[in-house]
Design goal:
Blueprint: E1 3-4, E2 7-9, E3 12-14, E4 21-26, E5 31-37, H1 41-60, H2 63-79, H3 81-92, H4 96-114, E6 124-129, E7 132-140, E8 143-147, H5 155-166, E9 170-174, H6 181-193, E10 200-202, H7 207-215, E11 219-225, H8 228-240, E12 244-248, E13 253-257, H9 263-275, E14 285-290, H10 293-308, H11 328-343, E15 347-350, E16 369-372, H12 379-382, E17 389-392, H13 398-407, E18 410-411, E19 413-417, H14 421-430, E20 435-438, E21 454-455, E22 458-459, H15 466-472, E23 474-482
Parallel strand pairs: 1-5, 8-9, 8-11, 9-10, 11-12, 13-14, 13-19, 14-17, 16-17, 19-20
Antiparallel strand pairs: 2-3, 4-5, 6-7, 7-23, 12-22, 15-16, 18-21
Helix pairs in contact: 1-7, 2-4, 2-6, 3-4, 4-5, 9-10
The structure holds nicotinamide-adenine-dinucleotide (NAD).
Pfam family, one: Aldedh
Protein name: methylmalonate-semialdehyde dehydrogenase (CoA acylating)
EC number: 1.2.1.27
Length: about 500
C-alpha cells in the first residue's frame, strides 16, 4: 500500500476529496512512494475561509508575542532537524547535509522575522502643519499565498511564510507536488509551536489549486518561486485579479574567472556550485567564463580532474557528493540538452549520461557533465538546464565577460573570481544581475538582506526576505491628525493676572 498524503487546513491534516492525485517518487530508487491529493477549487476555498478566520486572531496578537511563537517553531524545527532532512532527501534526492542546509537557510529567515516589530513600525512627523501631525501604520494584508518550487521544499516556503506571519497575515502554501512532505511537517510544527488554527495552511495541488488562489478575492498577495514561464503567468494573473505579486523565475548564473584568480579556489567553487544538489539550485553556476586562453585551459584541466573524483550516489549515503535528479522527466530533459550541446558542436569533456549506481538501477541519475567551447547561440547556453551540466564559454577579455553576464536573458546570480579589487568593484557595480558574489560562487544573501533576481529571473518590485518582505506583506495607512484646542485652555480666555 502506497502512503496517501493530505492537505493541512485549520490546524490539522485533511484528506483530499477531489479524487485527483499525483505521484511522489523516491528519486534514488525511481519508485513511487506516496500519492498526493490535488486540491479542487472547493478545497482551496475552504482553506481560504479557515485562513480568513485565523488571521483575525493572529493579527490581534501583539507582534512580539507572534515573534515568540515563531521562535518556538524554530526550536521545534531544530529538534526535528534530522527527521526533516531525511524526509526532504527521500523526496528531493539532495544529500542529507544539503537537506539540512535547505532547512537551516529557511529558519534563519523565520528567526529574522521574529524581530519584526522593528520593521512594522510606521513613521511620524510632528507639526507637519500648524497643529497637525502625520503618522503611518503598517498593517497586515490579511490572507496571503505562496506557491513554491521543488528544489528548496523547506527554505522557500519559510522565506515566504516567516515574514508574512510575523507581519500578522495568515498564509496558504501551495508547495511543489514533487516533494510535499516537509511542508506538511512544517505545518504541524507551526501548530505545535502555538500558531492558531488556520494561520498556516497547506493545499497540495496543480494548476487548478493555483488558479483558485489567484482568482479568489480574499487572497491579497501571492509570492511565487519557480520557472520563468509560470512566474510570468502568475504575475500577470495575480495582477489581473488586483493582487500584489512577487514572482521569481529561472536562472543561468555565470562565474567569471579572471587570469589573476586563485584557480584552485575557483575550480573547487565551480564544482560545488555547478554540481551540488545535482545542479538543481536557482543559484547554481551553470556557465563558467574564464578570461583568456591560458585561464580557460588551466581551469578546464582542473575541472576535469575534480569531476573524475566526484561520487554520485544515494542521497543518504555519507560519501555521495550529490544525488539523483528529481524525476524521470527531469533526467530526460537534462540528457536532451546534453545531446543538443553535442549536436551544436560544443566539446563534451565529461558526459553524465548513462550513469548507473549499484543497487539503484532505476534511480534518476545524471552524472557531472562538462562542456567546453560553448558559444552564445547554443541552447545549452541560452536556456536553463537545471541539472549537473556546466558550460565553459571562453571570453577574450574582461569586457566581453561582463557583457555576457549582463546580456543574458536571466539575471539571478553571478560571481567573479579575481584578486583585483578594482576589477571586482567595477564588476559588482556594472553587471546587470541581482545578486553578485566576489570570490563567492553562490551569493545567496543572508536573511536580513533581500533575495531577488533581475530580468527574466524576477517579476515584481520587492525582493524576498529582509526589509522588502515586510513592505510586501503589509499595507501602509497614513493618518493626518489635528486636535481642536480643548481642556488645556480651560474655560477662561483671559490671561489670569495677579491681583
Ligand atoms: P515550476 O515552475 O514547475 O513549479 C513551481 C510551482 O508552480 C509549483 O508549486 C508548481 O506546482 C506550480 N505550477 C507548475 N505549473 C503550473 C501551472 N501551469 N500553473 C500554475 N502553477 C503551476 O518549477 P519547479 O520545477 O518546481 O522549480 C524549478 C524552477 O524554479 C527553476 O526554473 C528554478 O530556477 C526556479 N527557482 C527559482 C528561484 C529564484 O529565487 N529565482 C529559486 C528556486 C527555484
Amino acid at each position: 500500500m502506497v502512503r496517501e498524503l493530505s492537505h493541512y487546513i485549520d490546524g490539522q491534516r485533511v484528506e483530499g476529496t477531489s479524487g485527483r492525485f499525483s505521484d511522489v517518487f523516491d528519486p534514488c530508487t525511481g519508485k513511487m512512494q506516496a500519492r498526493l491529493p490535488l486540491a479542487s477549487t472547493e478545497e482551496v476555498r475552504n482553506a481560504i475561509a479557515s485562513a480568513e478566520k485565523g488571521q483575525l486572531e493572529w493579527a490581534a496578537m501583539n507582534p512580539q508575542r507572534r515573534g515568540r511563537i515563531l521562535l518556538k517553531f524554530v526550536d521545534l524545527v531544530n529538534d526535528h532537524m534530522d527527521e526533516l532532512a531525511t524526509l526532504l532527501s527521500s523526496e528531493h534526492g539532495k544529500t542529507f547535509p544539503d537537506a539540512k542546509g535547505d532547512i537551516q537557510r529557511g529558519i534563519e529567515v523565520v528567526e529574522f522575522a521574529a524581530g519584526a516589530p522593528h520593521l512594522l513600525k510606521g513613521e511620524f512627523s510632528d507639526s507637519a502643519g500648524t497643529g497637525i501631525d502625520v503618522h503611518s501604520l503598517r498593517q497586515p494584508l490579511g490572507v496571503v499565498a505562496g506557491i513554491t518550487p521543488f528544489n528548496f521544499p523547506a527554505m522557500i516556503p519559510l522565506w515566504k511564510s516567516g515574514p508574512a506571519l510575523a507581519a500578522g497575515n495568515s498564509f496558504i502554501l501551495k508547495p511543489s507536488e514533487r516533494d510535499p512532505s516537509v511542508p506538511l511537517r512544517l505545518a504541524e510544527l507551526f501548530t505545535e509551536a502555538g500558531l492558531p488554527d488556520g494561520v498556516f495552511n497547506v493545499v497540495n495541488g496543480d494548476k487548478e489549486a493555483v488558479d483558485a488562489l489567484l482568482e479568489d478575492s480574499r487572497v491579497q498577495a501571492v509570492g511565487f518561486v519557480g520557472s520563468t514561464p509560470i512566474a510570468q503567468y502568475i504575475y500577470a494573473t495575480a495582477a489581473a485579479h488586483g493582487k500584489r505579486a512577487q514572482c521569481f523565475g529561472g536562472a543561468k548564473n555565470h562565474m567569471v574567472i579572471m587570469p589573476d584568480a586563485d584557480l584552485d579556489m575557483a575550480a573547487d567553487a565551480l564544482i560545488g556550485a555547478g554540481f551540488g544538489s545535482a545542479g538543481e539550485r536557482c543559484m547554481a553556476i551553470s556557465v563558467a567564463v574564464p578570461v583568456g586562453k591560458a585561464t580557460g585551459d588551466a581551469l578546464v584541466a582542473r575541472l576535469t580532474e575534480r569531476i573524475a573524483a566526484l561520487k554520485v550516489g544515494p542521497s543518504l549515503a555519507a560519501d555521495s557528493d550529490f544525488g539523483p535528479v528529481v524525476t524521470a522527466a527531469a533526467k530526460e530533459r537534462i540528457e536532451g540538452y546534453i545531446a543538443a550541446g553535442v549536436a551544436a558542436g560544443a566539446n563534451l569533456v565529461a558526459d553524465g549520461r548513462g550513469l548507473t549506481v549499484e543497487g539503484y538501477d532505476d534511480g534518476f541519475w545524471v552524472g557531472p557533465t562538462l562542456f567546453d567551447n560553448v558559444t552564445k547561440d547554443m541552447s545549452i547556453y541560452k536556456e536553463e538546464i537545471f541539472g549537473p551540466v556546466l558550460s565553459v564559454l571562453r571570453a577574450e577579455d574582461y569586457d566581453e565577460a561582463l557583457r555576457l553576464c549582463s546580456e543574458h536573458e536571466f539575471g539571478n546570480g553571478v560571481a567573479i573570481f579575481t584578486r583585483d579589487g578594482d576589477t571586482a568593484r567595477d564588476f559588482a557595480s556594472r553587471v546587470q544581475v541581482g545578486m553578485v558574489g566576489i570570490n563567492v560562487p553562490i551569493p545567496v544573501p543572508i536573511a536580513y538582506y533581500t533575495f531577488g533576481g533581475w530580468k527574466a529571473s524576477g517579476f515584481g518590485d520587492l525582493n524576498q526576505h529582509g526589509a522588502d518582505a515586510f513592505r510586501f506583506y503589509t499595507k501602509t495607512k497614513t493618518v493626518t491628525t489635528r486636535w481642536p484646542s480643548g481642556i488645556r485652555q480651560g474655560a477662561s480666555f483671559v490671561m489670569p493676572a495677579g491681583s
